[in-house]
Request: fold
Amino acid sequence: MNVDIEDGVCQIAFDRPGALNALTKDTAVALAETIEDASVEEYHAIVITGEGDAFSAGGDLQALSQAPESTREAYESITDTFGRVVEAMLECPVPIVAKVNGDAIGAGLAIVALADIAYASEDATFSCAFVRVGLIPDTGGTFMLPQIIGLRAAKQLAFTGEFFGAERAADLELVNDAIPAAELDDRVEETVAQLRKRPTEIIGLMKQAMHENMSRHWSEAIDYENLLQVQARTSDDHEEGVSAFLEGRDPEFNT
Reply:
């Protein structure tokens, strides 16, 4: 896995193109650790992509075929690797953009679903392929897919393991848009440029509120939203945003 940091953007690239960027446990841990270390003081955005022609073909079945000796070991193994990726991505205060340059299969598709924003090359192929190898969706698949694309669509994709293209992924809102391959880098950079101009700390609060409120009753959700809004309203970013608006200029946020 390659990590490149430039101008407040952390770009993470899966770098096993010969294996279609299939993910090992070590890769999952490295991905989680990189995201866990990201702070709003250091980054405006994290971009996840793949080297070569694929985003990620999912878990490396050959590497993952070494079965743990016990059920407990199996649980700890997945919790400490792919489960850790889910927690890191959902709790990260920095916005995460998936640049889906090619096929996103299994855990690769789940990582796309976990990202805050996702753009896909028009020639990318997707599949929630776990059922094809006798597994249920992991890496947050059973949680995020129904949240994003709806329960019936999630069941269809999970139960059948069917392959589908980027246009359908966009129609399902699994990705924000399907884009010609030659224009993908520019589209992601446009979004990153927008994020650079926004207060990252406040975006982190938005993300926290949205994720925490997914399972709350509306009254609890609004109360939690109000608590975080108080935090936002007492921030330097809010003061700068209001001053810039009243003075007719572009804001210069600290984060």
Summary: The longest strand covers residues 9-14. The CA atoms of residues 68 and 77 lie 8 Å apart.
